[in-house]
Amino acid sequence: MLVRKATMRAHLRTVPKRFGDGGQGMSTCRAVVLPRFGGPEVLEVRLNEPIPDLGPSEVLVRTKAAGINPLDLKMRGGYGKSLFKPLLPLILGRDVSGEITAVGKAVSQLHVGQEVFGSLHPTAVRGTYTDYAILADEQLAPKPANLTHVAAAAIPFAALTAWRALHSMAQIRPGQRVLVMGGGGAVGLAAIYLSRALGCQVSCTCGKRSIDLVKEAGADETIDYTSEENIQGQFKGQFDAVLDTIGVEETEAAGVNVLKRGGHYLTLQGEAVSLADKYGLLAGGALAAATLLRKQVQYRQSHGIEYWWAIMRTDVEGLHEIARLAKVNKLRIPVGRSFPLTEASEAHRLRENKANQGKVILEAQ
Ligand SMILES: NC(=O)c1ccc[n+]([C@@H]2O[C@H](COP(=O)([O-])OP(=O)(O)OC[C@H]3O[C@@H](n4cnc5c(N)ncnc54)[C@H](OP(=O)(O)O)[C@@H]3O)[C@@H](O)[C@H]2O)c1
Q1: Whose CA is nearest to atom 2 of ligand 1?
Q2: Which of 121, 147, 192, 364 is deepest in the core (most CB within 10 A)?
Q3: What is the CA radius of gyration of the chain?
């Protein structure tokens, strides 16, 4: 333990004022751990999880709030097992909002005491369901002062997914028309706000209960996905980009048909992870690359469009733009309910219920 403490101090430019549950120099903290794949009941609250040494560009964040994303529930159930099984136990959670307690020696833009929010990459093994989360400096931005930690923790993963798809991949431009399929969800709402901020006209599909929300986010036109409306017939060839958060056969068929030639169809339900889980990392990875290429060629020939599997990626420029928009009330993701960190299983249960609306957040006291 003595050696570990000495190493840790050598790595930190600023020794945290407060560590773990109190005493300076503690190297463990509370965390919600996933020891094996399964239902919400497998999540375990542990009091003495190690806090690893900080790398030069890493930041130690005292978690105030950690957002729950659908990915957390999927990972808990075994999604990504080809990658994660050998790495169990894991700490789930991508989103965080909290206060910096230490920074690595190469960190220059962030400092101890600053309130920040941000998100880990989808493949991170030590997540944010813990009192002390570790993120790279470029995965964090100052938390907008007008947001509570709970409100801030609802935003980054979903908004960065929308940013990745529409800004980085489809490169949407002012005046273009965007269709968001699943506008009432967290990624869908973020996509509407971002498209509007980028000067686009936005239509979306959503359920009746989400109509006010998507309009508030700036949707110019809403299509009730429970109605009999024929999207393909009504909007054929009209959009420059379609972000499909649902990604089933029907939405894909509709999505590719409402695009103009040269438009971009982006699904959040790419098959890379499920193929790797089924056939192993190597064979599954190769099959995924071949499947994607086949669909890209097929849709280029049949519809003249670009087809993509969009995957969330952390992006410092995107996060700062998201923070800027949130600061001027031009991006928000509604929170349904928050739970104490210790009730993560309960929170997952609520999140699994499709009747639940709004983000579910864990609060660390
Ligand atoms: N590829 C990636 O990197 C990535 C990143 C983030 C998320 N995702 C995935 O993207 C999906 C959405 O994530 P999220 O965080 O936005 O989830 P979410 O907040 O739970 O939103 C899901 C929403 O989908 C809507 N919906 C369900 N069926 C629909 C349909 N047929 N047509 C239109 N809307 C429908 C529901 O809206 P109503 O309330 O209007 O019914 C629901 O609110 C999840 O499957 C998630 O795993 C992937």
Answers
A1: 311
A2: 192
A3: 21
**What's the pLDDT at 15?**
39
Domain segments of the chain as ranges: 2-154+334-363, 157-309
**Residues enclosing ligand 1, CB less than 6 A?**
69-71, 122, 158, 161, 181-182, 184-188, 205-207, 209-210, 225, 245-246, 268, 310-312, 357
The residue contributing the CA closest to ligand 1 atom 29 is 182
> What is the whole-number distance in angstroms between the Cα of residue 186 and the centre of ligand 1?
7
Q: Structure tokens of 276?
A: 């790797």
At residue 24, does pLDDT exceed 50? Answer: no
The domain over range 2-154+334-363 is classified in CATH as 3.90.180.10: yes
Q: How far is the CA of 9 from the centre of ligand 1 (A)?
A: 43
Using the mean position of ligand 1's atoms as its centre, give its distance from the Cα of residue 246 in Å: 6
At residue 227, the pLDDT reads 82
- How far apart CA 233 and CA 257 sit, in angstroms, is 9
The rounded Å distance from CA 70 to ligand 1 centre is 8
What is residue 277's predicted lDDT score, i.e. its pLDDT? 96
Ligand 1, closest atom to CA 309?
A: 1
Mean pLDDT of the chain: 92
Number of helices followed by number of strands (H, E) in the chain: 13, 16
* 2 has pLDDT over 50: no
Q: What is the CATH number of domain 157-309?
A: 3.40.50.720
- Asked if pLDDT for residue 255 goes beyond 80, the answer is yes
Of 170, 141, 132, 168, nearest in space to 28 by CA: 132
| Amino acid 25: pLDDT | 54
Distance in angstroms (rounded) separating the CA atoms of residues 26 and 18: 9
CA of 301 to the centre of ligand 1 (A): 29
Terminal Cα distance for the chain, rounded: 26
Name which residue sits closest to atom 4 of ligand 1, judged by CA: 268
Confidence of residue 326 (pLDDT cuts 50, 70, 90): very high
DSSP state of 249: H
